[in-house]
Hints:
By secondary structure, the chain is mostly beta strands. It contains no helices and 10 strands. The strands form 2 sheets. Strands 2-10-9-4-5-6 form a 6-stranded mixed β-sheet, with no helix packed on it. It has a 4-stranded antiparallel β-sheet with strand order 1-3-8-7, with no helix packed on it. Strand 7 (68-73) and strand 8 form a beta hairpin. The chain starts with a strand and ends with a strand. The relative contact order is 0.32.
Amino acid sequence: QLVESGGGLVQPGGSLRLSCTASGFTFNIAAMTWVRQAPGEGLEWVSSIGTRVAGYDTLYDDAVKGRFTISRDDARNTVYLQMSSLKPEDTAVYYCVKSGRSGSLSASRGQGTQVTVSS
């Protein structure tokens, strides 16, 4: 099970930190990914993080590189997405999935958390 939280309404240029707490699987050996779905659009890959064995390697879509930071706390079974310099086009429902980048768009999702960037 994956439970996302931390979304909300924020002005352009603002920041938010999303959290996703996992249960029901061995979190510390699972790559994790954030994906998002904007209104009327398809699912979009955002960022992925590997496991400790993989050196916690991170990947970012070009649209968020330099503004978003993905991290994980294996002791808390939680993956985070720190979002800064938010833009209106970041408005979407954000989901975390148990997957690396490949396959993330077809992986099972939780309920998601809504992020709205608007003045």
